[in-house]
Amino acid sequence: MALLEITGLFHHFGGLAAVTDFSLEVEEGELAGLIGPNGAGKTTVFNLITGVFQVRQGQITFRGQDLTRRPSHLISARGIARTFQNIRLFKDLSVLDNVRLGAFAQHRYRLFDAVARTGNFRLEEERQRQRALELLERFNLLPYTDAPARNLPYGEQRRVEMARALISDPKLLLLDEPAAGMNQSEAQDLVRLIREIKEDFSLTIILIEHQMRVVLNLCQWVKVLDFGEIIASGPPREIQHHPAVLEAYLGRDGGLLEGEAGSAARE
Q1: pTM, whole model, 2 decimals?
Q2: pLDDT band at residue 210, thresholds of 50, 70 and 90?
Q3: All domains of the chain in start order, with CATH
Q4: Is 179 helix (H, G, I), strand (E, B) or coil?
Protein backbone atom coordinates (compact mmCIF):
# COMPACT_ATOMS: atom_id res chain seq x y z
CA MET A 1 0.00 0.00 0.00
CA ALA A 2 1.31 3.44 -0.95
CA LEU A 3 1.93 5.90 1.86
CA LEU A 4 0.04 8.59 -0.08
CA GLU A 5 -2.46 7.85 -2.84
CA ILE A 6 -4.30 10.54 -4.78
CA THR A 7 -6.85 9.63 -7.44
CA GLY A 8 -8.88 11.76 -9.83
CA LEU A 9 -8.24 15.11 -8.18
CA PHE A 10 -9.91 18.15 -9.76
CA HIS A 11 -9.98 21.74 -8.55
CA HIS A 12 -11.39 24.88 -10.12
CA PHE A 13 -11.22 28.58 -9.31
CA GLY A 14 -14.43 29.85 -10.82
CA GLY A 15 -14.27 28.76 -14.45
CA LEU A 16 -10.52 28.14 -14.37
CA ALA A 17 -9.34 24.53 -14.04
CA ALA A 18 -6.34 24.61 -11.67
CA VAL A 19 -5.94 20.82 -11.34
CA THR A 20 -7.39 18.28 -13.76
CA ASP A 21 -7.62 14.53 -13.07
CA PHE A 22 -4.45 14.50 -10.95
CA SER A 23 -3.35 11.13 -9.57
CA LEU A 24 -0.27 10.26 -7.55
CA GLU A 25 1.17 7.38 -5.54
CA VAL A 26 4.12 7.89 -3.21
CA GLU A 27 5.74 4.98 -1.41
CA GLU A 28 7.17 5.29 2.07
CA GLY A 29 10.73 6.61 1.99
CA GLU A 30 10.55 8.09 -1.50
CA LEU A 31 11.64 11.59 -2.48
CA ALA A 32 9.43 12.75 -5.33
CA GLY A 33 9.28 15.97 -7.32
CA LEU A 34 6.41 18.00 -8.70
CA ILE A 35 7.54 20.50 -11.32
CA GLY A 36 6.06 22.75 -13.95
CA PRO A 37 5.81 26.40 -14.98
CA ASN A 38 4.31 29.08 -12.76
CA GLY A 39 0.56 28.65 -12.47
CA ALA A 40 0.66 24.98 -13.43
CA GLY A 41 -1.23 23.89 -10.29
CA LYS A 42 1.61 22.55 -8.13
CA THR A 43 0.90 24.54 -4.97
CA THR A 44 -2.82 23.90 -5.46
CA VAL A 45 -2.08 20.18 -5.16
CA PHE A 46 -0.24 20.80 -1.87
CA ASN A 47 -3.13 22.94 -0.63
CA LEU A 48 -5.58 20.13 -1.42
CA ILE A 49 -3.42 17.51 0.32
CA THR A 50 -3.10 19.62 3.48
CA GLY A 51 -6.72 20.77 3.66
CA VAL A 52 -6.08 24.43 2.84
CA PHE A 53 -8.47 23.93 -0.10
CA GLN A 54 -11.44 21.60 0.22
CA VAL A 55 -11.44 18.62 -2.11
CA ARG A 56 -14.65 18.59 -4.13
CA GLN A 57 -13.74 15.87 -6.61
CA GLY A 58 -11.22 13.10 -6.13
CA GLN A 59 -9.78 11.18 -3.18
CA ILE A 60 -6.70 11.49 -0.97
CA THR A 61 -5.64 8.49 1.11
CA PHE A 62 -2.73 8.62 3.56
CA ARG A 63 -1.49 5.58 5.49
CA GLY A 64 -4.68 3.79 4.51
CA GLN A 65 -6.97 6.53 5.85
CA ASP A 66 -9.21 8.74 3.75
CA LEU A 67 -8.21 12.38 4.32
CA THR A 68 -10.25 13.79 1.46
CA ARG A 69 -12.37 16.16 3.50
CA ARG A 70 -10.47 16.36 6.75
CA PRO A 71 -9.59 19.80 8.17
CA SER A 72 -5.98 20.95 8.18
CA HIS A 73 -5.30 20.34 11.88
CA LEU A 74 -6.43 16.71 11.65
CA ILE A 75 -4.32 16.18 8.52
CA SER A 76 -1.31 17.55 10.40
CA ALA A 77 -2.06 15.27 13.35
CA ARG A 78 -2.12 12.28 10.97
CA GLY A 79 1.49 13.00 9.97
CA ILE A 80 1.64 15.45 7.05
CA ALA A 81 3.63 18.68 7.37
CA ARG A 82 4.61 21.33 4.85
CA THR A 83 6.55 24.47 4.13
CA PHE A 84 5.30 27.31 1.94
CA GLN A 85 6.42 28.94 -1.27
CA ASN A 86 6.39 32.30 0.49
CA ILE A 87 7.87 32.03 3.97
CA ARG A 88 5.12 32.19 6.59
CA LEU A 89 6.79 32.91 9.88
CA PHE A 90 5.43 35.07 12.68
CA LYS A 91 8.04 37.74 12.17
CA ASP A 92 7.69 39.38 15.62
CA LEU A 93 7.82 36.11 17.55
CA SER A 94 11.11 34.53 18.53
CA VAL A 95 12.62 31.76 16.45
CA LEU A 96 11.96 29.35 19.32
CA ASP A 97 8.28 30.26 19.52
CA ASN A 98 7.90 29.95 15.75
CA VAL A 99 9.17 26.39 15.89
CA ARG A 100 7.03 25.52 18.93
CA LEU A 101 3.90 26.61 17.08
CA GLY A 102 4.38 23.73 14.66
CA ALA A 103 3.43 21.29 17.43
CA PHE A 104 -0.08 22.68 17.86
CA ALA A 105 -1.75 19.50 16.56
CA GLN A 106 0.30 17.26 18.87
CA HIS A 107 -0.48 18.88 22.24
CA ARG A 108 -1.42 16.31 24.83
CA TYR A 109 -3.50 18.46 27.13
CA ARG A 110 -7.08 19.67 27.23
CA LEU A 111 -8.37 23.23 27.04
CA PHE A 112 -8.94 23.15 30.80
CA ASP A 113 -5.26 22.29 31.36
CA ALA A 114 -4.18 25.28 29.29
CA VAL A 115 -6.54 27.70 31.04
CA ALA A 116 -5.70 26.44 34.55
CA ARG A 117 -2.03 25.90 33.70
CA THR A 118 -2.10 22.46 35.28
CA GLY A 119 0.92 20.24 35.81
CA ASN A 120 0.03 18.32 32.66
CA PHE A 121 0.08 21.59 30.71
CA ARG A 122 3.46 22.63 32.12
CA LEU A 123 5.02 19.23 31.44
CA GLU A 124 3.78 19.19 27.86
CA GLU A 125 4.94 22.74 27.20
CA GLU A 126 8.40 21.91 28.52
CA ARG A 127 8.53 18.77 26.41
CA GLN A 128 7.73 20.78 23.28
CA ARG A 129 10.24 23.48 24.25
CA GLN A 130 13.02 20.91 24.57
CA ARG A 131 12.02 19.34 21.27
CA ALA A 132 12.12 22.76 19.60
CA LEU A 133 15.59 23.44 21.03
CA GLU A 134 16.81 20.10 19.69
CA LEU A 135 15.59 21.05 16.22
CA LEU A 136 17.19 24.48 16.43
CA GLU A 137 20.47 22.77 17.25
CA ARG A 138 20.00 20.33 14.36
CA PHE A 139 19.46 23.22 11.93
CA ASN A 140 22.32 25.32 13.38
CA LEU A 141 19.84 27.92 14.62
CA LEU A 142 20.58 27.98 18.36
CA PRO A 143 22.28 31.42 18.17
CA TYR A 144 18.94 32.81 16.96
CA THR A 145 16.78 31.13 19.63
CA ASP A 146 15.41 34.32 21.19
CA ALA A 147 15.75 36.59 18.16
CA PRO A 148 12.64 37.79 16.33
CA ALA A 149 12.22 35.77 13.14
CA ARG A 150 12.29 38.96 11.05
CA ASN A 151 15.95 39.51 12.03
CA LEU A 152 17.17 36.30 10.41
CA PRO A 153 18.73 36.14 6.94
CA TYR A 154 16.52 34.61 4.28
CA GLY A 155 18.25 31.22 4.24
CA GLU A 156 17.95 30.85 8.01
CA GLN A 157 14.25 31.75 7.84
CA ARG A 158 13.83 28.81 5.46
CA ARG A 159 15.52 26.58 8.03
CA VAL A 160 13.20 27.83 10.77
CA GLU A 161 10.23 26.93 8.60
CA MET A 162 11.58 23.41 8.05
CA ALA A 163 12.25 22.98 11.79
CA ARG A 164 8.69 24.11 12.51
CA ALA A 165 7.37 21.48 10.10
CA LEU A 166 9.45 18.72 11.67
CA ILE A 167 8.44 19.35 15.28
CA SER A 168 5.13 17.66 14.53
CA ASP A 169 7.00 14.40 13.76
CA PRO A 170 5.53 14.01 10.27
CA LYS A 171 5.77 10.95 8.08
CA LEU A 172 5.28 13.00 4.91
CA LEU A 173 6.94 16.39 4.36
CA LEU A 174 5.80 18.69 1.54
CA LEU A 175 8.43 21.26 0.54
CA ASP A 176 7.12 24.10 -1.63
CA GLU A 177 10.08 25.68 -3.47
CA PRO A 178 12.57 25.42 -0.59
CA ALA A 179 15.40 26.79 -2.78
CA ALA A 180 13.47 29.88 -3.88
CA GLY A 181 15.68 32.95 -3.64
CA MET A 182 18.84 30.95 -2.97
CA ASN A 183 22.08 31.19 -4.91
CA GLN A 184 23.91 28.11 -6.20
CA SER A 185 25.99 27.62 -3.06
CA GLU A 186 22.96 27.94 -0.78
CA ALA A 187 21.01 25.52 -2.99
CA GLN A 188 23.83 22.97 -2.72
CA ASP A 189 23.73 23.27 1.06
CA LEU A 190 19.96 22.80 0.94
CA VAL A 191 20.32 19.60 -1.10
CA ARG A 192 22.63 18.18 1.56
CA LEU A 193 20.27 19.27 4.35
CA ILE A 194 17.21 17.67 2.73
CA ARG A 195 19.09 14.41 2.22
CA GLU A 196 20.17 14.42 5.85
CA ILE A 197 16.77 15.16 7.36
CA LYS A 198 15.13 12.57 5.11
CA GLU A 199 17.37 9.91 6.61
CA ASP A 200 17.53 11.27 10.16
CA PHE A 201 13.75 11.68 10.47
CA SER A 202 12.70 8.71 8.28
CA LEU A 203 10.73 11.01 6.01
CA THR A 204 8.91 10.67 2.75
CA ILE A 205 9.21 13.95 0.83
CA ILE A 206 7.41 15.59 -2.07
CA LEU A 207 9.24 18.59 -3.45
CA ILE A 208 8.05 21.48 -5.61
CA GLU A 209 11.06 23.24 -7.08
CA HIS A 210 12.11 25.42 -10.02
CA GLN A 211 15.86 25.02 -9.59
CA MET A 212 16.46 21.96 -11.73
CA ARG A 213 19.83 21.15 -10.19
CA VAL A 214 17.99 20.65 -6.90
CA VAL A 215 15.43 18.36 -8.55
CA LEU A 216 18.08 16.37 -10.41
CA ASN A 217 20.19 15.89 -7.29
CA LEU A 218 17.35 14.88 -4.98
CA CYS A 219 14.30 13.37 -6.64
CA GLN A 220 13.86 9.72 -7.52
CA TRP A 221 11.04 10.57 -9.89
CA VAL A 222 9.02 13.62 -10.91
CA LYS A 223 5.62 14.51 -12.28
CA VAL A 224 5.33 17.53 -14.55
CA LEU A 225 2.21 19.70 -14.46
CA ASP A 226 1.13 22.18 -17.11
CA PHE A 227 -2.20 24.02 -16.90
CA GLY A 228 -3.27 21.63 -14.14
CA GLU A 229 -2.64 18.44 -16.12
CA ILE A 230 0.14 15.88 -15.84
CA ILE A 231 2.14 15.96 -19.08
CA ALA A 232 5.03 13.69 -18.07
CA SER A 233 6.16 11.40 -15.29
CA GLY A 234 9.36 9.48 -14.63
CA PRO A 235 12.98 9.73 -13.43
CA PRO A 236 14.26 13.32 -13.64
CA ARG A 237 17.05 12.50 -16.10
CA GLU A 238 14.47 11.10 -18.50
CA ILE A 239 12.03 13.93 -17.93
CA GLN A 240 14.66 16.52 -18.85
CA HIS A 241 14.57 15.29 -22.45
CA HIS A 242 10.79 14.93 -22.74
CA PRO A 243 9.58 17.12 -25.66
CA ALA A 244 6.42 18.28 -23.86
CA VAL A 245 8.47 19.28 -20.81
CA LEU A 246 11.04 21.16 -22.86
CA GLU A 247 8.26 23.11 -24.55
CA ALA A 248 5.89 23.73 -21.64
CA TYR A 249 8.32 24.18 -18.78
CA LEU A 250 11.60 25.35 -20.22
CA GLY A 251 10.98 26.63 -23.74
CA ARG A 252 11.35 24.87 -27.02
CA ASP A 253 15.15 24.84 -27.07
CA GLY A 254 15.44 23.26 -23.60
CA GLY A 255 18.66 25.14 -23.03
CA LEU A 256 18.10 25.86 -19.35
CA LEU A 257 17.37 22.26 -18.46
CA GLU A 258 20.38 20.94 -20.34
CA GLY A 259 22.58 23.51 -18.65
CA GLU A 260 21.19 22.70 -15.23
CA ALA A 261 21.64 18.99 -15.85
CA GLY A 262 25.25 19.50 -16.78
CA SER A 263 25.87 21.50 -13.65
CA ALA A 264 24.14 18.87 -11.55
CA ALA A 265 26.24 16.10 -13.05
CA ARG A 266 29.41 17.94 -12.06
CA GLU A 267 28.33 18.62 -8.46
Answers
A1: 0.86
A2: confident
A3: 1-79+173-267 (3.40.50.300), 89-169 (no CATH)
A4: coil
